[in-house]
Amino acid sequence: MKPLDSSDSEEDLNPETHKKSLEKLKNIDPDFYNFLEENDENLLNFDLDSEDDVSDKNDDEESVHVPGPLTGDSDESDFEEEDSKPTKGKITLKLVKQWQAELQSDGKIKHTTLTTVIKAFNAAMLRATSEDGTSQGEFKVEGSSIFNAVIQMCVLYLPTALKKYLGIEQSGKDPRNCKHFIKIKGPLVAYLNDLLKLLGGVTSENILTVLLKHLHQMCIYVACFGRISKQSLKKLIIFWSTGEETVRVLAFLCILRITRNQQAALLDRVLKAMYMTYVKNCKFVSPSTWPGINFMRRSLVEMFTLDLNVSYQHVFLYIRQLAIHLRNAIVVQKVENRQAVYNWQFINSLHLWADLLGATSNKLQLQPLIYPLVMIITNTIKLVPTHQYYPLRFHCIDILMNLSKDTNTFIPILPFIVEVLTSYDFNKKHKKVSMKPIDFSCILRLAKSQLTENGFKDATIERLYALLLEYTANESHNIAFPDISLLAIMQLKQFLKTCTVANYTKKLRQLLEKIEENAKFIDSERSKISFSLKDDKMIKAWESSIKTKGTPLSIFFDNWNKVNRIQKRKKITKNDEIAGELPMIKRPKINEQKITKAENKGPLVLFPSDSEDDKTQFGEEEETSSPIKVKKIKKKRQTKKVKSNNKKKTDDHEMNIPDKGDIVQDLSVSDW
């Protein structure tokens, strides 16, 4: 390469020549010149008075051009170096770790630490809700890793730090009575508002469960503020009615905790809102929605039992509304009024109040409502007593039986069950063959086409058998059982005389025998008593002793119920489909056509011995007289050996199935 002369270097470093070259550049390429002018002005501005010091500047390191700072944000802003100087208000991972250590410290929690952490959470929420993804405030959250770190810090460590700051770690006193509550009140309101905003914007089930667990820890602070309590309850009731299983449970636990802390102010509003939500979400019933409806009903019963004096006003009002709908349907006799009664919302409401009255049977506040509820249910059955509404009848009978059992109240249910045996002709030939059995659990009304199928009669007999057996088993220890069961015995005998279907008569004859056996048992035990029938205490003691001993009908029902539950679980889980192919025993194929002509020429044995002892005893004689029979005996022994070997293989296969433990763990709300 050609060495650089000193004259050339001086000319190149002369500011005037450099300025002229830049002017030429401005004329030749104005876009590039504008780019330099906007991004780095150091290239364009030269000091003209420094001509004499050009040679000194060549040796000076500061004369080397240093590019200006870039204004665009880097994609790797989440992974900053810890040594780099943070900009004012910008949150870094190092800063988050520092705050986390202060929240976990064993000493006193500083007020400034809590307020700073709450402000950081607010900055993260502003970033999440803003359109451009930036937060404007005292702190700035940039990048998803910083956002996640701030949220995780608050969710994991803020509740314990707040308890430590207020001094309520062990004592369960009201936070409003604490000394430092006034100082933290403002930041706490801001934090709870931001937490509710975050709950409203989350769609992932896993993140929602985490935030609901955190809210459950913060419920003691939520109950301190009336406006925040109402806002949180409104969102929690939506989660309770429409969320997934875990979300529903956590939402209900939060509702229960907030309501208990402000029971006098919130219970009225919560009961009304939860009941209206329950009615709205039980309009459609299917096997997939049944678990959610059952959970809502049971949890709503739990809420009504918090204060029965307050609940009585609500229950009385809602039962009265059901009675008004039923009265309009009976009086007006129009399709619209009938549909207001014969729907799932009406039936599920009856189910709810029956469960509530059964759960509070040991308390006197709600017991006067048993009679009006029973009258509503029985008149609902009588409204349209046709074959199409047999499923609805069975649902109402089921509600009445549970109510009678839970409240220990005698309800005349038996006529509504045995009425089906006389109101429908089961000897009628069906026009269609149903591919699947009809399930009455999720329907209230049958279509006309279903009434002509054989599945309708089969399902009706199955349901009648189950209801009769359950009702008589529940009353089997009653001292008046022979008198109560008389109607059922008469109707069953009449049905067995007229019915010609063998499957139906066989099933109901077995039930009739068990009922008669139990009636004779009670009659024999009743003949031994010496007390008066007016003595209620002695009668109750006698019935409880008979119940503990066990009656023939109750023992039979318990065994049947175990088998029935297993069959129901198989239907729900579809175990038969999941099981797949079971191990098969491979039997060897015996080809009888391979017998040779020489073997067929032997004498025919007309009466061969079936016992193996005879074969072993006379084995030598048979070998000389009939070679064909000896070969047949050998083949039989070989096939028996193959069968025994295959059986051993299948037994070993069944014994070596690994026993997997229960992988489902119980949900702990306090454990994060």
Please name the defining characteristics of this protein.
mainly alpha; 32 helices; disordered N terminus; 672 residues; disordered C terminus
Fold and architecture overview:
- It is a single chain.
- The protein is mainly α and 672 residues long.
- Among the domains are: 6-59, no CATH class; 87-176; 399-577, no CATH class; 595-637, no CATH class.
- Helices cover 65% and strands 0% of the residues.
- The protein has 32 helices and no strands.
- It is elongated, with a radius of gyration of 42 Å.
- The two termini are 72 Å apart.
- 24% of the residues are buried.
- Mean pLDDT is 78; it is low at 1-13, 46-86, 575-582, 590-636 and 647-672.
| Principal-axes shape call | elongated
Helix count, per DSSP?
Answer: 32
Roughly how many Å is the radius of gyration? Answer: 42 Å
Structural class: mainly alpha
Low-confidence stretches: 1-13, 46-86, 575-582, 590-636, 647-672
Instruction: Kindly state the number of beta strands.
Output: 0
Beta-strand residue fraction:
under 5%
Roughly what percent helix?
Answer: 55-70%
What is the average per-residue confidence, as pLDDT, rounded to a whole number?
78
The rounded distance between the terminal residues' Cα atoms is 72 Å
Largest sheet: none
Main location: nucleus
Subcellular location: Nucleus
GO molecular function: histone binding; transcription corepressor activity
Organism: Galleria mellonella
